[in-house]
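Protocol step 4 of 6.
Sequence for Fructose-bisphosphate aldolase class II (Pseudarthrobacter enclensis) entered exactly as in the expression construct, tag removed. Do not edit the line below.
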Amino acid sequence: MGVAPLNEILGPAFQARYGVPAINIFNDLTIEAVLAGAVEANSPVILQTSVKTVRSIGTRVLFDMWSSLTRGIEVPVTLHLDHCPDRGVITECLKAGWNSVLFDASSLPVEENQRQTIEVVAEARSYGAQVEGEIEAITGVEDDHGSDEVSQQQSLETVLGYLDATGIDVFAPSIGNAHGTYKTAPVLDMGRVTEIVEARNIPIALHGGSGLSQEQFADLISRGCAKVNISTALKETYMQSSLAFLKQAERDNKWDPPSLFKHARTDVITMVKELAEQFGSAGKGGH
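Step 5 output, structure tokens:
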């Protein structure tokens, strides 16, 4: 299947109630390793880029890496711009070829968020792309975006009005989840996912996935969380793998960068395969 629109990846997942790993990559090695892990697991995967990553690498170079590394790939993959409040960056990424964007206007009043999201959806449609939306900020700071303050939940009526007005493809509710590493076990409002899905039958994006329990993942995915975001877990896997290798390199006084990259790559691939098994997307790659 190869590179596909977000809704072609999430549609089957939502119907069959499995979760697709949506993993925030940050360099060429993590792009390649996440894709390789998805291929080994025969799983669809969503590669996410934060605004920080887009700015640090550059839109053109990042998209060229993506194009090169997905050429001929047989599992369904898509490129998504994560939490982006900047309309200019959204336009830049859509023009470059991103398949979907999360327009994060959660800091704005709901009415203004809704008005601008309608414009973003129209813009994305002109490129054949999809839009994820949110009206409540997900707690926690990630890649210089967000706040540790817990945002107020909107009423179900407000949520449904926003969904109807905007026509977004995926919705990211606040259910007690948070970005980063959980300091205590999160208490999640599982029922809120069910309420939204039963009312509008829209795929839900679960943010703050790193650190949830197996039971929490299974419960939320069964309720309609078809897109499961993972960022912190990849950063920790990549850096801890590198750190362990570098400590050994120092002890041995052997300094070989390709061996370092190979070591980190192996650990990232293992992580992706484990996520695909955990979320039920393994074997769903269509070949």
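Step 6, annotate. Residues 159 and 202 are 12 Å apart (CA to CA).
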